[in-house]
Design a protein that fits this description.
By secondary structure, the protein is mainly β. It has a domain of 86 residues: Jelly Rolls (Sandwich). 8% of the residues lie in helices and 44% in strands. The longest helix has 11 residues. The mean pLDDT is 88. It comes from Actinacidiphila epipremni. This is Cupin domain-containing protein.
Length: 130
């Protein structure tokens, strides 16, 4: 059976707690793991922010994102007029498209999984209306 003929099947892809712990022990930051399966409809990443690092406040116009905190602590900055919302392991956060959001890591750093609809690939061609 060729890879293209193999049946689609459910399987465990990653132990995010183990990967987050290894990343923290190594002092790693950035993407520690990402979903890369062919034919997927979702994108998912395990991200680690170093202690004190932050993802600046921004708005994602097109995609809702789920964030699951797996290790460390931090804050969600969703409204500049309000104090940040504490993030601890187990927190599941919905970031609706269009909403402003930023994330700041605490003293031990912050590891979290993001999941969202896969963005379509770039295509070469004319822009609509061009």
């Amino acid at each position: 059976m060729t890879p293209a003929e193999e049946p689609v099947r459910a399987r465990v892809l990653c132990d995010v707690q183990e990967a987050a712990a290894a990343g923290a022990a190594d002092g790693a930051a950035g993407i520690l793991w990402k979903l890369a399966e062919a034919g997927r409809q979702l994108d998912a990443n395990l991200v680690r922010l170093a202690p004190g690092a932050r993802v600046p406040a921004h708005a994602e116009p097109d995609l809702d994102v789920l964030v699951l905190v797996v290790a460390g602590t931090g804050e969600l900055d969703a409204d500049p007029r309000q104090p940040g919302t504490p993030l601890t392991p187990g927190a599941l956060v919905w970031l609706p498209h269009g909403a402003t959001r930023g994330i700041a890591a605490g003293e031990q750093g912050l590891s979290y999984v993001t999941v969202h609809r896969r963005r379509p690939g770039m295509r070469i061609g004319r822009r609509p209306g061009a």
